[in-house]
Amino acid sequence: MSSSGEHHGERHEEQHAGGRPTEAYGSGGSAGSGVRAQLHHRVPDLGALELLLAVARHGSLGAAAREVGITQPAASSRIRSMERQLGVALVDRSPRGSRLTDAGALVTDWARRIVEAAEAFDAGAQALRGRRDSRLRVAASMTIAEYLLPGWLIALRAERPDTAVSLQAGNSAVVAERLLANEADMGFVEGLAVPDGLDGVVVAHDRLVIVTAPSHPWARRRGPVDPAELAATPLVLRERGSGTRQVLDAALSGHGGLARPLLELASTTAVKAAAVSGAGPAVLSELAIAEELASRRLVAIPVEGVELRRDLRAVWPTGHRPTGPARDLLSLTRARPAG
């Protein structure tokens, strides 16, 4: 028959090498879990272990303190704290220097293995970060992709020349889909609000402009177009799901809604080309038409009584704020506002 101290799972005490009793457990799983949960209380932190290794190398607490970048009193206090934590004397101090005790030499040997393991852990983590930071996948709505992102990406390349950037252009709805499917690390959209499932921040402002070719009757009118006339006129428009279409739909919803589009096109460039050719009035971002207005290939038509301003946003999946190159790109957009 076993003694009571040997019963399955029963806790008993063993004398630690330094005289301090330590708790030991039988084979009970819950007790073992308790020991693991308290490990951070029992094992000195890496800074203390690195200090002990420096004392072993230099034979001097002062030299060790200088190596790790702390004062000698702070080093002495850290060694004493570690001795109390472990329950053994680690260092003999004398006018001739600091010498490890026998227990200190043993603990130093263990410390060296722990520090080496920590260095290997850190190297592995750096490798993972390097792999993550070696690429950046950006999804952006058409206007931002064509007129704002090139400048931001050039600035990012100056800061991160080793990061390969891929850009996927599409409407705002497609950008949201790619982010939620983990097909992009950062997105940019033009709609009225942040799409469901995403967080975001405003990085620029924009305004939609009604434009026509100089030959269109609206180009010769003296007064502005009112919301009802604009809503009733077939326009050259971006497709549903685009930020431009969302803003225009919302602006004219109280005026009968948009008439059936004259043309419905999938890119800003296509809408602009149709307007320049005289197909009909079009709705475009002011970012996209500066050159055409200056050369008089397009004419801006005044509109009253309707709000056509919009915010341009950087977006990412909810709860996953950008890190690495995506975080740096976000910082660049805030430093270089447009609109």
Q: What would your notes on this structure say?
A:
The chain is α/β, with parallel strands linked by helices. The protein has 14 helices and 13 strands. Strands 5, 6, 7, 8, 11, 12 and 13 form a 7-stranded mixed sheet that branches. Strands 1-2 form a two-stranded antiparallel ribbon. Strands 3-4 form a two-stranded antiparallel sheet. The protein starts with 11 loop residues before the first strand and ends with a helix.
Quick take:
The chain is built from 14 helices and 13 strands. It has helices spanning 29-37, 39-42, 46-58, 61-68, 72-86, 102-133, 142-147, 149-159, 172-180, 227-232, 243-252, 268-276, 290-294, 324-335, and strands at 12-15, 21-24, 91-94, 97-100, 135-140, 164-169, 186-189, 198-212, 236-238, 263-265, 282-285, 299-301, 309-317.
Indicate the percent of residues in helices.
40-55%
Rounded to the nearest angstrom, the distance between the terminal CA atoms is 86 Å
Proportion in β-strands = 15-25%
Count of individual beta strands:
13
Q: What does the largest sheet look like? A: 7 strands, mixed
Quaternary state reads single chain
* Contiguous helical run count: 14
Structural class: alpha/beta
Mean pLDDT: 84
- Output the helix-strand order: EEHHHHHEEHEHHEHEEHEHEHEHEEH
What does the radius of gyration come to?
34 Å
Shape: rod-shaped
Low-confidence stretches: 1-35
